[in-house]
Amino acid sequence: MNLTFSSYFVEFFKLFFEISFLFFAVGMLMKFLQHRYANTFQKYLARDSLFSYWRGILLGVMTPFCSCSTIPVFRSLLQTKCSFGASMAYLLTSPLLNPITFVLLLKILDWKIAVFYTLFIMFSIFMISVFVAKIDSKSLLSDEFARSLSPRFSLTPTQGKCCATSCCSASNKLTLKGLFISEFQDYKKIFPYLLIGMALGAGIHNFLPTDFLSSYVRGNIWELILLAFVAVFLYIRIDLALPLGLALVQAGMPVGSMMCFLIAGGGASLPEFILLRSMFKWRFLMLFIGIVMGIAISFGWILNHFFSL
Questions:
Q1: What is the total count of domains within the chain?
Q2: How many other CB atoms are there within 10 angstroms of residue 175's CB atom?
Q3: pTM here?
Q4: Which domain holds residue 39?
Q5: Contact at 8 Å (CB) between 214 and 299?
Q6: 230-273 pLDDT per residue, tens
Q7: Own/partner long-range contacts of 229-233 (Cβ < 8 Å, ≥24 apart)
Q8: How large is the C-alpha radius of gyration of the chain?
């Protein structure tokens, strides 16, 4: 038992410090890119073209927000008359795809899964953007939000640039000290969740029998649908939940089922639905839920059938 508890603390501290370092290093890099290029990307999202959808995806990659934090920028994009397809590309990409998630997948799971996840999410969102761009967005907007649309609205620093979090000096210049302080402020917000996630992950890894979940979770399509449906109403950050997901996989859960749950939970949440409802009609919410669940279920099914750790 002492050996088990000893290995638990070794596993916990290893996970905690490794992922904390990744959050700091990648987070500072992303804040630098946001400061330099976020508004530049926005200029090119107004045109409804295939290139604008890719730019929306890249803007999402550069702004690794949770599902709720994407809404202020998404709202801003719509109010500045950006393409609906490009705005949707941003909304879907930001919580699902960013360098932190890629590095964690690379570190925790497997390089093939990390690369496939990145390509799958990008091309899926691109195809979805092409589809939703053909829908009359005015038929989806709530009457109140449609009346509030104004071309004068722009992406403010507090919504799109790291200057709002003291990355920059009074002269609007980026400094290494400012980047570190800004990232430290963000890290303090996620610290409790990171601590709990690492503790649970290390506990599952060391104390849960490796074949426990394999006796109950088979990874079939009906389980994936159920997992995705439950997860879309939860509030999950994929990068924070990945270490816990790895522990579940090591306890016998199919990797595709785990990723299905994280994608659905990371791509949507009940708080996000409430915020979106202030802007859109119910038909958009149903469409949005269907899109996120479709991405999660498809990816999970492919992983369960064609990949193995």
A1: 1
A2: 14
A3: 0.70
A4: 2-306
A5: no
A6: 888 877 778 777 877 777 777 777 888 889 988 998 888 777 78
A7: 229/264, 229/293, 230/261, 231/260, 231/261, 231/262, 231/263, 231/264, 231/265, 231/296, 232/264, 232/265, 232/267, 232/268, 232/269, 232/289, 232/292, 232/293, 233/269, 233/270
A8: 20
